Amino acid sequence: MKQLIVLLIAGFSALSTTAQTKVKNYTEDKDLSRWVLDLNGMGGGYSQQFTMANTAPNYLNGLNINTGNATFVNGSAFGGDLQLGVFFGKNKHLGLGTGILYLRESGDMKLNGFHAEYQSVDRNGNIFRQVVSANNITEQIKSDNFNIPLLLKYKNRFSKHWGFTADAGALFNISMKNAYTTNASFDYEAIYKFDATSEGGNRAIYETSLIPANTDFLITRNQFTKNNPNGSVQQYFDEKNAEGYNVGLGVSPKQQKGSTSYATGSVGFLFQPSINYFFSDHVALNVGGYFLVQPFKNDATNTYTLTGKPGEYNPVINSVSKVQTQSYGGNIGLRFFLGRKSAPLHISGTDPNAPSYCGQCDGSIVFHGLDAGKQA
Predict the structure, then answer these.
(1) CB 314, CB 304: distance < 8 Å
(2) Is 62 exposed, middle or buried (0-12, 13-18, 19+ CB in 10 A)?
(3) What H or E segment, with its residue span, contains residue 238?
(4) What's the burial of 325, exposed, middle or buried (CB within 10 Å: 0-12/13-18/19+)?
(5) CA distances from 189 to 85, 110, 112, 127, 139 (A)
(6) How many CB atoms sit inside 10 A of residue 111's CB?
(7) In degrees to the nearest 10, what's the CA dihedral of 163, 169, 175, 178?
(8) pLDDT tens-digit map of 6-47
C-alpha cells in the first residue's frame, strides 16, 4: 500500500511539473474581465457612389435638357466610436458590443455640363424661353453621420503585451445631415417669340422650335457678340435685366449655403480589426484599421430643378435619389477592462490519503485551491 501512495505522489509531482512548464507569464482572456469599454479615434478616406434622379421632365416644356454629370471627389472622414462589449464562453474570445459611432465626412460634389431650355415667365409677365447654362459647379459637402453599431467582437491575447481584436457587424444610422457651400454661377439667356393678336398687337408665346426663327427676339451672348463685336456683353445683359428680362451672366445664387438630410434608418456594415498592446490587465492600446459601407436614400421630388430664375438654386445633392458611401482608414484607441479579473486557478497544497482513510479505494489525493467539479 505504501508503494501505491508513493506512486500516486510521484504521479502528481510529474503532473505538477508538466503543468508548470505550461504556465504562462500573463493573464489569459478567460481570466480577464468579461466587460470592456472601447474608445477609438478613426480617420481616413471617404467616397460616394450615387444615383441621380431624372429631373429633366421637371423643366416645363424642356428643350435641350442636359442635367449634367455629377462626381464626388476629395473625400475624407474623421471621428470615432465608443463601445461597451461583453465577452462570454469559457475562453471569453467572442462577445457582443454596441455604443455610438460618429464620423465627420467631407468632400466635393462636382457637376459639369448642365444646360436647360424651358418655358418661363419674366418679371413683366411675358412668356419666353429661358436658356440656362452652368459653369462647372462645386459643392463642398460636410456631413455629420451618427450611428449605433451592433457588433460581434473577437479578442485573443497571445502574450504579456500583445493581442488581437476584430469587430464586425451592422451600423444603424440615426442621422445623416449634409451641409453644403456652393460656388455655382449661371448664364441666363432668353428667346422670345411673338404672335399677332386679334387686336392688331403682338403677344409673347413659347418658342417650341429648337432653332429660333429669324423673327424671334434673342437676348443671348452669341446674338449680341455677332451684332456688336466691340460691345460690352456684360453691360448689355445688366441693362436687359433692369428692364425686367430674366437674364444675366455669371449669376451666383442668393443662397450659397444650406443643408439637407438623407433618410434615416439605413443599415450599413463595419469591420474594425486591431492589434492590442497591453499596458496592464486593465488597459490596452488599440491600433488598426476600419472599413464601413452605408447606403442612403433621398427624397428627390418630382418638382426639383437646379435653378429656375436668376438667383434661384437647389443644391446638386438634393437631386441624389440614392447613394452608397464608403469610409476606410486607420483607428487608434484604448480598451478598458471593467471590473475585476477572474482569479486564476491555483493549487495551494495537496493531501495524499491512504486506503484506510477513503474506504475501499486504493488511495486518494486532495487538491487545495480548486473548486469541486470545476475544470482547470
Answers:
(1) yes
(2) middle
(3) helix 233-242
(4) buried
(5) 62, 23, 19, 14, 24
(6) 23
(7) 80
(8) 443 444 444 344 444 445 789 999 999 999 999 999 999 999
Summarize pLDDT for 322-365 with one digit per residue, the tens: 999 999 999 999 999 997 665 555 565 566 766 666 566 666 66
Contacts of 139 (CB under 8 A, 6+ apart): 108, 109, 110, 111, 180, 181, 182, 184, 315, 316, 317
How far, CA to CA in Å, does 164 sit from each of 10, 274, 277? 40, 6, 9
**Structure-block grid coordinates of residue 315:** 443644391
- Mapped onto helix, strand or coil, the DSSP state of residue 242 is helix
Q: How far apart are CA 115 and CA 186, in angstroms?
A: 10
**Strand partners for 283:** 336
C-alpha distances in angstroms, 269 versus 23, 43, 78? 40, 17, 17
CA distances from 239 to 15, 25, 235, 330 (A): 103, 87, 6, 57
- With CA atoms as reference, report the closest residue to 328 among 272, 279, 290: 290
